[in-house]
Design a protein that fits this description.
The protein is of the alpha+beta class. It contains 18 helices and 29 strands. The strands form seven sheets. An eight-stranded mixed sheet has the order 3-5-1-12-9-10-11-20, with helices on both faces. It has a five-stranded mixed sheet with strand order 7-15-14-13-8. A four-stranded mixed sheet has the order 16-27-28-29, sandwiched between helices. The longest helix has 28 residues, at 512-539. The protein is globular and about 85 Å long. The chain starts with 10 loop residues before the first helix and ends with a helix.
């Protein structure tokens, strides 16, 4: 069962439509439906809010404003800086002001639009530049330094530039939804589409003014999340629970897609400035880098996201002398939040842009410059934050991919094509990925599990992780089945519930299998110890002579039992067949004052080669071929992992080429529906898509059968697509200036880059 390409446990249910999500659950009798009334202003004082028309509307049962909350008016996950319902000041458009419960979802939404609100407009800060000018930040800025950048003026070659990468909407298939069911004595059961059941539990309990133990949050699966349901699910769960408490009836709150996109956070967009010194072969000698992100109205997870951007702005490259300053800008836009990669993609974007710029300046192949700057043997094996790499396999992996993809041959073919074609240009790029695995918040690197053995030998598995399509449940079930040596079909996967496993971490940071798999394995080992002790005492054999294998248990040489027979005997002998398991990641430590330590348990690696063709008249580009070689360690489930690599890559390609989040100068989000916001579809996949897991991969850490996390790292492989476009745009001009291409590389941004490049000196 381990290292086998097994199907997702819900695959058949997904394709048949039988998989139940929150909105599919049977609704209890008397269920009400909820909606939020939201701000129509970007930043304003609330002078008056007349909710009488809302209360008088057809079908309305209850209306709640901030003054009606029985407990805390807060959904801030780290700092208490964002209200459930705004009371005196609105800080962005779409911010909830009140909640309505009615007899149908249509009536609730109509009623929510009837409020009469009088505002006094206040000055709004919308852009990163405006926030920097006003020095307006959600948390203090961070500085990380190693060596000295004082030698920049004396560098043989020196470049300075300005970069920008855009935001990204999560666009999960299942929107934000929660169903709250009130119980006796103030208890509340909440079915929530969330990556973080425990956080939702805590925030709901605080809003209701009850202990955490009075609230249970449960879910079997999410219809996609990508980070967008780590903190953003909370307001919907809290809103539903507050209305359920007020009415004494079940309440469902399901967001309309437009309202969902307008009212929930997105990937942080970044502005960068760099100053780099390098030698004649492209080796970086000193780098000064400024990162600034749009964080929105509250801190949310911006501190950790921007920290990870700082951690990953080296990508795979050794920076001997570096100074990094990171600003976390407060703006009157919805709070930016977690998104697959969690700041890592934005950090790597800077690294790859700098390397591409200096390669172009020197007239060198960017791959050669990338290889010269890779981490290597000591002393080039220590990151800018002081962590020593234990398993840097990138030089070998890149060399293998370079050969497999016929990079050098194709590079010459691209040159020949571009020399003979005036209106179409091809681009080719190979980019690496080095991604740290662990939560950067140390306390989150822990997990719990609960495993029951029944008398018939079947197994009930529960843990704190959430299934959002990524295959977590099947992987943990594989670990359990392997540990107990039973058929996978005997392991029953149950819904995640805070009532079974408490105080869980979010399913995020690509750590779901590592944490929950090890916790479940710990529970299984406890159960096996009890069964071994029973056999040893009952059959008078040594513990080491009790062997579990393929559904059988050999008790010495004289007796063999099926696993079901043993569990039946153990039950009759009053042996406990239920156990909890626990895991916490060791060796994680980081000193934020010094910005030094070991924030990650290990690194996942990969590399991709992408080739595109570009129409220089329209700015349209098409991806022709992709070759990926990704390190998943000793993959627990190659079928699941390959799917994650493919999906992550395409999602990253969307972020870098077509998914454009646009706010106008007044802070209105203009891209809040499929008509204005475009994500990749099947036709955007390259006709040649070669994806391989590195056969020599093996985690140096003994975790999850020496597999490696695979949820987030593949997204950053899509940087190869952006840099293939960069390469093609560069081929339109003889200038050695950096290509002024912003992400996403939409046709408009591509044409803008071509025109700016043609106006640069030395074209």
């Amino acid at each position: 069962m381990i290292h086998q390409p097994l199907a997702h446990d819900s695959a058949a249910l997904h394709v048949s439509g039988e998989a139940r999500y929150v909105d599919d659950l049977p609704e209890p009798a008397g269920t009400l439906y909820a909606a939020f009334g939201v701000s129509a202003e970007t930043h304003a004082k609330i002078l008056a809010m007349d909710l009488a028309p809302v209360r008088a509307a057809e079908g309305v049962i209850a209306v709640l404003a901030a003054a009606d909350l029985p407990g805390a008016n807060n959904i801030g996950p780290v700092f208490p800086d964002e209200p459930v319902l705004a009371a005196e000041v609105v800080q962005c458009r779409g911010q909830p002001l009140f909640a309505v419960a009615a007899t149908s979802i249509e009536l609730a939404r109509r009623a929510a639009r009837l409020a009469r609100i009088e505002y006094q407009r206040l000055p709004a800060v919308v852009t990163i530049e405006q926030a920097l000018e006003k020095k307006q930040f959600v948390v203090p800025s961070v500085r990380c330094e190693r060596g000295s950048v004082a030698n920049l003026p004396g560098a043989v070659h020196r470049l300075a530039g300005r970069l920008r990468c855009g935001s990204q909407e999560h666009f999960y298939l299942e929107g934000q939804v929660a169903l709250a069911i009130p119980g006796e004595r103030g208890e509340m059961l909440v079915h929530s589409s969330t990556q973080h059941p425990s956080e939702v539990q805590h925030l709901v309990a605080a809003a209701l003014g009850v202990p955490d133990a009075a609230v249970t949050v449960e879910l079997r699966r999410l219809g996609g999340a990508f980070g967008g349901k780590e903190t953003q699910a909370a307001v919907f769960a809290v809103g539903a629970a507050l209305l359920a408490r007020a009415t004494g009836r079940p309440v469902k709150l399901r967001a309309d897609r437009d309202d969902d996109i307008i009212g929930t956070g997105k990937r942080h967009d970044f502005l960068y400035q760099y100053d780099v010194g390098f030698d004649g072969e492209g080796r970086i000698e000193a780098l000064e880098l400024m990162l600034a992100s749009r964080c929105g109205i509250s801190a949310d997870l911006s501190s950790a996201v921007n920290d990870r951007a700082v951690f990953h702005c080296d990508n795979a490259y050794y920076l001997q002398n570096v100074r990094i300053v990171s600003h976390r800008c407060r703006t009157n836009t919805v709070s930016s939040t977690a998104f697959r990669g969690f700041g890592g993609p934005q950090g790597m974007f800077a690294a790859e842009a700098v390397v591409a710029a200096l390669a172009r300046h020197l007239g060198l192949d960017a791959l050669d410059v990338r290889k010269r700057n890779l981490y290597g043997a000591a002393p080039r094996d220590v990151t800018h934050y002081g962590m020593t790499l234990q398993d840097n396999i990138l030089p070998e992996l890149i060399a293998e991919l370079e050969t497999r993809s016929e990079y050098r041959k194709r590079r010459e073919a691209v040159k020949a094509f571009n020399a003979s074609s005036a209106f179409f240009k091809r681009g080719l790029a190979l980019t690496p990925v080095k991604f740290g695995i662990a939560f950067t918040a140390k306390s989150m690197n822990q997990a719990g599990a609960l495993v029951h053995l029944y008398a018939d030998g079947s197994v009930h598995l529960n843990h704190g992780g959430t299934e959002m399509g990524q295959g977590l449940m099947i992987k943990v079930a594989q670990i359990v089945a392997s540990e107990l040596q039973v058929d996978l079909e005997r392991v029953h996967i149950s819904a995640t519930s805070t009532g079974k496993v408490p105080n869980t971490s979010p399913t995020a940071a690509s750590s779901g299998t590592d944490l929950n798999g090890e916790a479940a394995r710990d529970a299984c080992r406890t159960l096996k110890q009890r069964l071994v002790q029973y056999c040893s005492e009952t059959y008078h054999v040594r513990a080491e002579d009790v062997v579990f294998s393929k559904g059988l248990v050999a008790v010495g040489t004289a007796k063999t039992l099926t696993f079901a027979e043993l569990t039946r005997e153990a039950f009759l002998a009053r042996v406990s067949l239920s156990a909890t398991g626990y895991w916490r990641t060791p060796e994680i430590q980081f000193d934020r004052e010094r910005w030094r330590g070991t924030p990650f348990y290990y690194f996942a690696y990969g590399a991709a080669v992408s080739e595109i063709v570009l129409d220089v008249l329209t700015g349209e580009s098409r991806l022709l071929r992709v070759d990926i070689l990704h390190d998943a360690g000793r993959s627990l489930n190659p079928a699941i992992d390959r799917g994650q690599v493919e999906g992550g890559f395409i999602q990253g390609m969307g972020w870098l080429t077509m998914e454009e989040v646009v706010w106008d100068d007044e802070g209105r989000l203009l891209t809040h529906a499929p008509s204005t916001y475009k994500i990749p579809v099947a036709s955007d996949c390259p006709p040649v898509f070669n994806v391989s897991l590195w056969e020599r991969g093996e985690n140096v850490r003994d975790i999850a059968h020496r597999s490696k996390a695979v949820g987030e790292p593949p997204l950053m492989l899509a940087l190869s697509v952006f840099h293939a476009i960069y390469d093609a745009v560069g081929a339109t001009s003889s200038s050695r200036e950096p290509v002024p291409l912003e992400a996403p590389a939409t046709p408009e941004n591509i044409l803008k880059a071509i025109h700016e490049l043609h106006r640069s000196p030395g074209r």
